[in-house]
Amino acid sequence: MLRLFFSKIYSLLNALLAAIGLLAVAALTTPDLTERASLILEIVLFGVWAAYLLQLFATMVLHRATGVRDRSAVVADVLAVIVPAAAFLFVGSRDWSLFCAVWLLQPLRGSMFFRLMARVLTNEARNLVGVTTIFGIVLFAAALAAYLTERDVQPDKFGSIPLAMWWAVVTLSTTGYGDEIPQSLAGRTLAGLVMMSGIGIFALWAGILATAFYEEVRRQDFVRNWQQVAAVPLFQKLGSAALIEIVRALRPRVVPAGTVICRKGEAGDQMYFIVEGRVSVATSSPVELGSGSFFGEMALITGEPRSATVSAITEVSLLSLFSVDFQMLSSSSPEIAEIIRKTALERRGAIPHG
Amino acid sequence: MLRLFFSKIYSLLNALLAAIGLLAVAALTTPDLTERASLILEIVLFGVWAAYLLQLFATMVLHRATGVRDRSAVVADVLAVIVPAAAFLFVGSRDWSLFCAVWLLQPLRGSMFFRLMARVLTNEARNLVGVTTIFGIVLFAAALAAYLTERDVQPDKFGSIPLAMWWAVVTLSTTGYGDEIPQSLAGRTLAGLVMMSGIGIFALWAGILATAFYEEVRRQDFVRNWQQVAAVPLFQKLGSAALIEIVRALRPRVVPAGTVICRKGEAGDQMYFIVEGRVSVATSSPVELGSGSFFGEMALITGEPRSATVSAITEVSLLSLFSVDFQMLSSSSPEIAEIIRKTALERRGAIPHG
Amino acid sequence: MLRLFFSKIYSLLNALLAAIGLLAVAALTTPDLTERASLILEIVLFGVWAAYLLQLFATMVLHRATGVRDRSAVVADVLAVIVPAAAFLFVGSRDWSLFCAVWLLQPLRGSMFFRLMARVLTNEARNLVGVTTIFGIVLFAAALAAYLTERDVQPDKFGSIPLAMWWAVVTLSTTGYGDEIPQSLAGRTLAGLVMMSGIGIFALWAGILATAFYEEVRRQDFVRNWQQVAAVPLFQKLGSAALIEIVRALRPRVVPAGTVICRKGEAGDQMYFIVEGRVSVATSSPVELGSGSFFGEMALITGEPRSATVSAITEVSLLSLFSVDFQMLSSSSPEIAEIIRKTALERRGAIPHG
Amino acid sequence: MLRLFFSKIYSLLNALLAAIGLLAVAALTTPDLTERASLILEIVLFGVWAAYLLQLFATMVLHRATGVRDRSAVVADVLAVIVPAAAFLFVGSRDWSLFCAVWLLQPLRGSMFFRLMARVLTNEARNLVGVTTIFGIVLFAAALAAYLTERDVQPDKFGSIPLAMWWAVVTLSTTGYGDEIPQSLAGRTLAGLVMMSGIGIFALWAGILATAFYEEVRRQDFVRNWQQVAAVPLFQKLGSAALIEIVRALRPRVVPAGTVICRKGEAGDQMYFIVEGRVSVATSSPVELGSGSFFGEMALITGEPRSATVSAITEVSLLSLFSVDFQMLSSSSPEIAEIIRKTALERRGAIPHG
User: With contact defined as beta carbons under 8 Å apart, do B320 and B268 qualify?
Assistant: First the structure.
């Protein structure tokens, strides 16, 4: 847990560093910069570069220590140091700073998200290539048709297929700069058809990416939840079918120490299972709950507002079960719902919370 | 039911009030306003403000009376009153009226929909941040490339990375204002690629939002329907698997008293279960049906037009079962279909409706 | 079947008629029309009007004869006749012809598709209203922010909130006319954010419409297929779970008499079940197959090219089973797959086709 | 396998040839071309044409040899040869080269992807026609309304319905060229509504295409995987329900000889089943594995990095099982997971890999 927390802080800092560096790169390209301003910006660039040099050493030491080799991180780090240095030495004028754009690779370093994206693109390569081919065919056909209909009307804008292709790509993507516009009736009818085809093609593109992406995300969420659900004793009695249902229903959440998880008197639409960490239930005689316990179930069963405030003592890893899912769980796994209900009643007699 | 109805009317009135206030704010910014017109508009603003003051009192009284604390409503109400008042007192000129824009928060007050949206955004935060990072990387890379290819051709439009970034964002979102257009072949090829990347990125964005939103909506619908289905005696005999099927198939609908639910002679593609309220079946000897009854089943079984007009006596909460779902229900829960068929036959002998 | 065919022809003719009428309406508005041309167009309008008058009589006679009342058709027909007539009598100048635009309602007449659309919109009303509210809030906020950042730079374009709102709606929908463009850095950053919000909002809109639409379509397809599958004796032995699988897998298709359904020597990836009609298998001793038979199964089992040409003798209503689905069917309903395989072997001994 | 590989190379070369030919066609239309340049381009065109002539002969010989008739390929090949030849002979000036655009059909030749697209369009024809009708109705209505609101303000741009329709189509598709922009308040409000309708309509279009496309892709993937899974002995013991699960979980992949499939010391998130081909496990005593074997399971069970490098000896057809799916498989088919675990333990004792 703690490692996760630090790794988050680290990637945030890393992203900030890259952002500062890239902003300085961008600022350095503005014309009419004073000597002073450009000196400051170059010092900023050097500072960021030095930080990346440090990071490169750290990565290499860490790799030797743990034996894990994360090649993408090493590549990104080496490039982040070597490319700007080489550009500074060998590229004349101020253009060397543009090579610092290699820092754009930093956010991709060790990110789960980009690994996911890469897998989505690999999985769907065949379909994406197919749609791109259609795009190319429609693009050429549109340019040819526009050239034929408009070459006599506007020879300066549609006088050749390459010129007409610029119009076609701007129209097919519904960008519509407005620098080249068909004037003839045939050209305008064509334009309408091209816009409609464009939407169709981009719909396919979007559909492939979005669906494939979402499927991959759901698969990863399933694995992560699975590992957490396995840590809650209550669920270990379940058969595999019911377990899969539960894994789909629960939503993991990590809260730092001190967070108020639920507040007395508020309406409650979820209950919580503790995977790791401890919470404190603030009643007349405060109670502590640890890994494997659950709380907040009263609000789901009776619909009353929360009867106690619960706050995290340590960093706590929770699984939320929303009331909707509790209903579904009740019908598919009556035993678990029964255990939760029984515990709720016992607690009501003893300590009021939930 | 009645409470639901009043709450709908109330939020409609509230939305109308906010709309009037905001229109007045907008109108007040038009130049060359006559003294008279601006006075009238300021009076409108004051009227809306007074209404919000009243509402704030009402909310606080209600909270004390019921003990339910809806903090988002309280915050919206307090801001709606205090911000314009403070602006009126401390901001010079007519700009104080702009602060009335805080009334934009009113429609979010106590809305189920915005709570749902907030949950969707929380759930998908990680993926949205990931796609936004990709967006940032592509944006910077596109601006850098455009700067390199176009800085000599159009130094006034692509002369620095910040300038080129404006072009990149306009193109990446396929907005295409047309104020900055690459002229070189390399720049135009780049533009085509940027447009395609833009569509890809926004497809991911759209896919994440749309899918996550729809999943959340379906979950909420399920819970609402579940509670209503549980109120119909016929369904209480069902096993949990069949019950889940039914909950998915039925569609809830509330009609005010006096509504004609189905009309004699029309084609019918749905039957109705009454959750709450009473309806009147207009045959030679009119019949009344109450909670737990069903009607309109004849049209589904025989395919004939409706044999009687049915209208609501009180406000009625209904569950509709479409003929498609009746077919599926018939195969998965033959017992229920059998009960419905038997009742239909009995009724046919006795009273003609359906 | 025949009725279906005529109804298709009829709606095609109706759409054509409306298209002709509307084209004439559009043409009549072009300036500098010769006397002669406008006379011809008005005669066309009168012709279309007369056709609608005829149709109105036909509809009324039909309604009296069959007793079915399709109110949407009657309303569309009455309006199609009365509105242009009234406009002709009471509206001065040539503007009366614009009222013929009421013919736009004709394609909606008795269309299954528009009934479906109406149901989708009704079902999703609540969510669509919610997203539209968000749209309104973002629109106003964007206009206010643009007014604040740009009013001093471009007072003629962003000098009031209503003016800025025009920019906001053009940008939020990523249309980007380019007539109003923010110039300040703050304004441009704002524009980037507005474009991104726009995509998000339209993604929600699109997601709601697309998903709800597709769900409704699938429900309707299921019902239509269900009725056809029930007519094939082979499937009547199946349990309800297997039946639902089959209904999902089969794809209905109607071919006119004389069509070649499969051709000898071609690769085959589907087999066919005959719901209604007769086909001829062109082998050395031609064979006729009727309702309830199936053919083309050989290609699925052996992977060889079609061994005979099969053509429709009458209009034939078919259900196609693709090889993919045959594989799935084989594993979920081995009995049916067994019957198909056995028949295939017997036929191979006797008559070569498939 | 080898045939698949050659067919991929072939279609790549074919696409390249078409691309070269079409680029030459495009280049030939640029004005002010030198004599020399246009001669070179015409020679390129002739070369591509000659290659297609060769291909036509090859196709015809192949068809005679194998007896398979792929009519779409024959049609594309015949057109690719005859159309440019005929144009060269009978069309005056340089315009004959435009007819070479018929080569655009080449990438569609024998492509699985375009067959898939054609099927999607056929399946969804009815819905696509429906949405297109709505598009037409909204387009006409928008043009009529814009004509009414703007004809007096900008008679040169909105002076007739056909003129206003150009504005309507540009706005409805959110292209927004910016050549025609409503000025009146009514016109601008209308424009906002048109943009919103446009997004709605295109959302339906996109939703239909994307969903239908994805469904079809999944069906085809299922069939392809099915055939490969059937070749792995381990899976032949499974019941049909479990088999379907496995088929959905596994992902096929073909790697050329010599590829390193997994590398010692890297983190591993998938295991592999060999459908066809042989791999070498590089341990102290190298081991060869053939069809029906699996490897890489250790990383899934223990979470340790890969213990050996595995590379392909021949071209290898693999099925990947990701750790997520291994988890799901473990719960739904414990027997298979048990076999995999047992093998892993035995191997650990003997040869270290995974």
Answer: no
Domain with CATH 2.60.120.10 in chain B: 233-349
Q: DSSP string of A67-131?
A: ----HHHHHHHHHHHHHHHHHHHH--SGGGGGGGGGGGGGGGTT-HHHHHHHHHHHHTHHHHHHH
Would you give per-residue pLDDT tens digits along chain D (354 residues)? 455 566 778 878 888 999 999 999 999 988 888 889 989 999 999 999 999 999 888 888 887 777 666 677 788 888 999 999 898 888 867 788 888 889 988 887 767 778 788 888 887 888 888 888 899 999 999 999 999 999 888 988 898 999 899 999 999 988 888 888 998 889 999 999 999 898 888 878 877 887 788 777 777 777 677 667 766 777 766 665 566 667 777 777 778 788 888 888 777 778 888 888 899 988 777 888 888 788 888 777 777 778 888 989 888 888 888 776 777 677 666 777 777 778 777 776 654 444
Q: Do A251 and A158 contact (CB within 8 A), yes or no?
A: no
Residues of chain A in contact with residue D104, where contact means CB-CB under 8 angstroms, are 137, 140-141
Q: Where in chain B is the domain with CATH 1.20.120.540?
A: 2-110
Look at the block and give the residue holding tokens 């279960």. Answer: B273
Cα pseudo-dihedral A205, A209, A212, A216, rounded to 10: 170
Any chains having at least 3 CB pairs less than 8 A from chain A are B, C, D
* CATH architecture of the domain formed by B125-216: Orthogonal Bundle (1.10)
Residue of B nearest to C115 (CA): B269
Whether A111 and B123 lie within 8 Å, measured CB to CB: no
Return d(Cα C340, Cα C330) in angstroms, integer: 10
Contact residues, chain D, for A140 at CB < 8 Å: 22, 26, 101, 104
Query: How would CATH label the architecture of C2-110?
Result: Up-down Bundle (1.20)
Interior CA angle at B120 toward A107 and B75, to 5°? 105
Tell me which of 1.10.8.420, 2.170.270.10, 2.60.120.10, 3.90.1010.10 is the CATH number of domain A233-349. Answer: 2.60.120.10
Q: Are the Cβ atoms of C207 and B213 closer than 8 angstroms?
A: yes
Q: Does domain D125-215 have CATH number 1.10.10.10?
A: no
> Beta-strand (E) ranges in chain B?
251-255, 260-262, 270-276, 279-282, 287-289, 294-295, 309-312, 316-322
- What does the alpha-carbon distance between residue B64 and residue B66 come to, in Å, rounded to a whole number? 6
**Nearest chain B residue to C238, by CA:** B331
Give yes or no for a contact between C73 and C109, defined as CB atoms under 8 angstroms apart: yes
Which ipTM score applies to this complex? 0.80
Domain with CATH 1.10.287.70 in chain C: 125-216
Residues of chain A with Cβ-Cβ distance to C177 below 8 Å are: 178
